[in-house]
Amino acid sequence: MPDFSDAIRYAQGHEVPWPRDPAAEPAKWGVHHEDPPPYNRLRGPVHARGGVSGVIRVGAEEVASWGEPDRADLTFSVAKTYLALLAGVAQGRGLLDPNERISSRLPGIGFDDPHNREITWAHMLEQTSEWHGSCLGMPDQVEHNRRVAHDPKPPQGRKGEARALQRPGSYWEYNDVRINQLSLALLHLYRQPLPEVFGQSVLQPLGGGRDFRWVGYDDAWVDIGGLGMQSVPGGTHWGAGVSISARDQARIGQLLLDGGIHAGQQLVPAAWVERMQQPCAIAPFYGWLTWLNRQGGMFADASRESWFMVGAGGHYVWMDPKHRAVVVVRWIDPAHSPGFVTRVARVLAGR
């Protein structure tokens, strides 16, 4: 049995410096404070968190866990990858072609003007859409010039400062407003609340879903077929988002490691899962709402086949095909995540 105790001690000794209760010190919790006013506020519910937790699976078996692995905590932008999985399920049902223009299938939801009508599902999934507009009251400009830890591009200006838009597919930018627009499009595509689809199509078949929640902003309700449905965000930037346990995150990571198949059932098309791992032509560190380690830019000591779901607040789900491993760590200080990855990688490599 591999011994990950050193890595676990390291993780637990380097908790993210956010208060465990968002209400205790609001100014030290979350990422919305960096936004220009009036958008630097929460728009949906948040809740108290646990401490550093995690799960490690090797060869589809759980070999280590720590903290509270069954506690459902907010997971921030790990939820982006869940949107990619929902798009994959839709593709498997014949509901979308990743290379088609979204406007051709879903007119009237924000993809109709001359600039936006060129946008495909693939553009949205790889974050090169350059979608322009306002989604549920939030303009895309709020996220212009955003910097995230694993983006090697130098700053182009101040966050929220307008920049010239490029043609869809020609510029990569991490932009949560556009991700929310993708989620809205998927809601219109399914005509069913996305948390229900995700539970029925992914989590429940995996044996997970206990205490899972995926909620939207307080005012993010839309009419679909005469029914009010809440559009959910692909993160917790402005509150709301996915609350899920580390064990369920590991189950989802295992599904991806296994090419979308579980217990003989193809939950997500294998070709879609493979495509999620392929580098974006203009941002080779990124796939379809996943982070890649092809050149070691994410973590130098992780295998080059490794790919990741990443969320603010120190959330990482690491899929390592080389070692048939899935590693989940939550609420670790991101500045110390390389130290944790290095310690786990040494054990996986037998060093």
From TrEMBL:
GO molecular function terms here? hydrolase activity
Stretch list, region Disordered: 15-45
Every Beta-lactamase-related domain range: 54-329
Specify the domain of life of the species encoding this protein. Bacteria
Pfam families, sorted: Beta-lactamase
Per UniProt, the keywords (alphabetical) are: Hydrolase
Q: Which PANTHER family does UniProt cross-reference here? A: BETA-LACTAMASE-RELATED, BETA-LACTAMASE-RELATED DOMAIN-CONTAINING PROTEIN
Q: Which protein, by its recorded name, is this?
A: Serine hydrolase
